[in-house]
Amino acid sequence: MPQTEQKFFGSFFQKRTASLISDAPPLALYIHWPFCLAKCPYCDFNSHVRDRIDQPAFAAALLRELAWEAARLGPRRLTSIFFGGGTPSLMAPETVGALIDAACTHFRPAADIEITLEANPTSVEVSRLAAFRQAGVNRLSLGVQALDDAALAGLGRRHSAAAALAALELARSIFPRLSFDLIYARPGQTLAAWRAELRQALALAADHLSLYQLTIEPGTAFEALHRSGTLVLPDEETAAALYDATAEAAARAGLAAYEISNYAAPGGESRHNLAYWRYADYAGIGPGAHGRVSVGGDLLATRRHRAPEIWADRVARDGHGSTRETPVVPRERAREALLMGLRLAEGISAAYFEARTKVRLDDAVDPDMVSAAIDAGYLQRTESHLIATGEGRRRLDALLPRLVL
Ligand SMILES: C[S@@+](CC[C@H](N)C(=O)[O-])C[C@H]1O[C@@H](n2cnc3c(N)ncnc32)[C@H](O)[C@@H]1O
Ligand code: SF4
């Protein structure tokens, strides 16, 4: 092509690409690593234990599926990447680096792109954490779960509290941003014991904490123990007191409850998880990953095959391991956006909700139930937003089925 023509088409394509990027919604990218050293008895995430893992084959499959997804999504601004699991800290740092590089080539990374990796204190070691940082990870999410050895044993964890603390200290010195997870409302846990553990956790916290109430998930070892009466959870009243104590202590330490189980210093919120709760576009690659992506005029619900080996075979055959992809119709979009958005302290913007779901916010909820919930102090309706109060968020599971039309 002659130079002038090349210049013209070059700038035309640049402009065209720039306008496509500004029209298309920004993207959050989730990458799933489905393997763990052992299965924790409470966990129903898509995680598998294998004697041997063909790391290069899984790395190649993830890269291939990412390329396939990128080709159909087109140019997008990439706001976050999240390596979740499973235990992604078991991935080779070179694989993490290759995936970050590929994502930043396929898409246009935001200047302040957030790149999180979930790590487990058992698999964390000095050289690995530093290598993950070098690969481009700028936020670590560490699965501490408890700061007490007996509780860790009860949760089936393979690390001690001391190992978790050492990993935390090391991670703080390496990563600009750091979060860790704890599970509370454990069997036999008293309010006083949780307060003491929380005090310790808050003293160790950086800009973010995830504090989850233990839930009994179908199909887990804990479910069987719970059903047989061997595992007894704190009663509802104690659980509520534990939840309130958590939010109060976190707030005193400067970490606001911006979501039901997530606490952050100003600006420390997980941008990736905010994309889910705000019902923004996110792509999910890897076994069992799901996504909500705008393609053409549709919002597609995507899901990949859960079994790692079957997923990898499908990727080798078709370039992707999708099981099914369905357009999300406006009524379903509205339901999903409500389920997600009311988890957030900021609530749901009516204008954004309507633009995203094609349903008016006030048409998506039962007006009588909204009034009753406002009177009871569970909801707030401002001119621009629908917000679940702290009390409302604590009861969200009970509230939502009554509220959502
Ligand atoms: C994908 S998992 C974990 C990451 C990492 N593999 C680990 O175990 O540290 C994300 C988090 O969900 C939480 N979680 C998993 N199952 C849970 C349950 N049944 N109840 C409460 N929290 C749970 C744990 O805190 C866990 O760290
Ligand atoms: S909690 Fe983490 S380490 Fe345990 S089985 Fe689930 S994903 Fe794996």
Descriptive labels:
binds S-adenosylmethionine; binds iron/sulfur cluster; 2 domains; 9-stranded mixed sheet; disordered N terminus; 405 residues; 22% strand; TIM Barrel; alpha/beta
Notes on the structure:
The protein has 405 residues and is an alpha/beta fold. It folds into 2 domains: 22-276, TIM Barrel; 342-405, no CATH class. Helices cover 46% and strands 22% of the residues. The strands form 3 sheets. The protein has a 9-stranded mixed sheet with strand order 7-8-6-5-4-3-2-1-9, sandwiched between helices. Strands 10-11-12 form a 3-stranded antiparallel sheet, with no helix packed on it. Helix 12 (330-341) packs antiparallel against helix 13 (350-357). The longest helix is centred in the N-terminal third of the chain and has 21 residues, at 3-23. The chain is globular, with a radius of gyration of 22 Å. Residues 1-19 have low confidence and may be disordered. S-adenosylmethionine binds at residues 42-43, 45, 84-85, 87, 118, 120, 143, 145, 181, 183, 212, 214-215, 217.
Topology (elements, then pairings):
Layout: H1 3-23, E1 27-33, H2 55-73, E2 77-85, H3 93-106, E3 108-119, H4 126-135, E4 139-145, H5 149-154, H6 161-174, E5 177-184, H7 191-204, E6 208-213, H8 221-227, H9 236-252, E7 256-259, E8 262-264, H10 271-277, E9 282-285, E10 290-295, E11 298-304, H11 308-318, E12 322-327, H12 330-341, E13 348-349, H13 350-357, H14 361-364, H15 367-375, E14 379-381, E15 385-388, H16 390-394, H17 396-403
Parallel strand pairs: 1-2, 1-9, 2-3, 3-4, 4-5, 5-6
Antiparallel strand pairs: 6-8, 7-8, 10-11, 11-12, 13-15, 14-15
This protein binds S-adenosylmethionine (SAM) and iron/sulfur cluster.
